[in-house]
Amino acid sequence: DAKTTQPPSMDCAEGRAANLPCNHSTISGNEYVYWYRQIHSQGPQYIIHGLKNNETNEMASLIITEDRKSSTLILPHATLRDTAVYYCIVRDYSGGGADGLTFGKGTHLIIQP
Amino acid sequence: NAGVMQNPRHLVRRRGQEARLRCSPMKGHSHVYWYRQLPEEGLKFMVYLQKENIIDESGMPKERFSAEFPKEGPSILRIQQVVRGDSAAYFCASSQAPQANYGYTFGSGTRLTVV
């Protein structure tokens, strides 16, 4: 079972910042927070990941609370092409053994023109 | 640098036939993961392979499904005697290493339809 909780859907106006929340209250000290998205009929796309500190790349920013029990993915200027299902995933960094990502139901983000 | 290549993109099989799905990881990636996505559902992990070894097959159905990643060539997911319930999108991902500070790169998937 997924260790994260996300709202099933969200709307955002084109050009505005999209803020996608994720709760991971049972996260352990050696687990990263990953975000992927899946645009309709395509393979999932890696967006960003982090452990404790906030992270930013060309696609998005990841804000992790100090207690690490929740995080927010921020798409700073959403476009219609950002309409997708966004998955928040926690994963142990130690590797080895069972190493597959556990996808939950994600948040269906709809960007409105 | 080509991404993860999966073929075929679409595959139609009659009930009882075999389906072979191929996945070529990104250059330099030696870890391959297969996922299945049933219609209107999320992705489910099936199997994790490293060259010539199955590391974790905890998500694979016990019968009819097998996977391999030979020393040379692509990884193959094989489904024998397909049934209608096998109709799904099958995605392959690859990574440089299993540690969590690497993201996975996914392919575009193979859509299997069993008629």
In short:
Chain A is mainly beta. In chain A, 0% of the residues lie in helices and 46% in strands.
Structural class of chain A: mainly beta
Number of strands of chain A: 9
Residue fraction in strands of chain A: over 45%
How many helical stretches of chain A? 0
Order of secondary-structure elements of chain B: EEEEEEEEEEE
Largest interface: A-B, 28 and 29 residues
User: Which geometry of chain B do the CA atoms define?
Assistant: globular
Task: Categorize the overall geometry of chain A.
Answer: globular
What is the oligomer described by this structure? heterodimer
Tell me the strand percentage band of chain B: over 45%
Class from helix and strand fractions of chain B: mainly beta
Low-confidence stretches of chain B: none
Task: Reconstruct the topology from this structure.
The complex is a heterodimer of chains A (113) and B (115).
Chain A: E1 9-13, E2 18-23, E3 31-38, E4 45-50, E5 55-56, E6 61-64, E7 70-75, E8 84-92, E9 107-112
Parallel strand pairs in A: 1-9
Antiparallel strand pairs in A: 2-7, 3-4, 3-8, 5-6, 6-7, 8-9
Chain B: E1 5-7, E2 10-13, E3 19-24, E4 31-37, E5 43-50, E6 53-56, E7 65-68, E8 75-79, E9 88-95, E10 105-106, E11 110-114
Parallel strand pairs in B: 2-11
Antiparallel strand pairs in B: 1-3, 3-8, 4-5, 4-9, 5-6, 7-8, 9-10, 9-11
Description:
The complex is a heterodimer of chains A (113) and B (115). In chain A, the strands form two sheets. A five-stranded mixed β-sheet of chain A has the order 1-9-8-3-4, with no helix packed on it. The mean pLDDT of chain A is 90. In chain A, strand 3 and strand 4 (45-50) form a beta hairpin. Chain A is globular. Chain A has no helices and nine strands. With 113 residues, chain A is mainly β. Chain B is mainly beta and 115 residues long. Helices cover 0% and strands 49% of the residues of chain B. Chain B is built from no helices and eleven strands. Chain B has strands spanning 5-7, 10-13, 19-24, 31-37, 43-50, 53-56, 65-68, 75-79, 88-95, 105-106, 110-114. The radius of gyration of chain B is 13 Å and the shape is globular. Classes of the chains: A mainly beta (113), B mainly beta (115). The A-B interface holds A 31-32, 34, 38, 41-46, 49, 87, 91-106 and B 4, 31, 33, 35, 42-46, 48, 55-56, 58-59, 89, 91, 93, 97-101, 103-109.
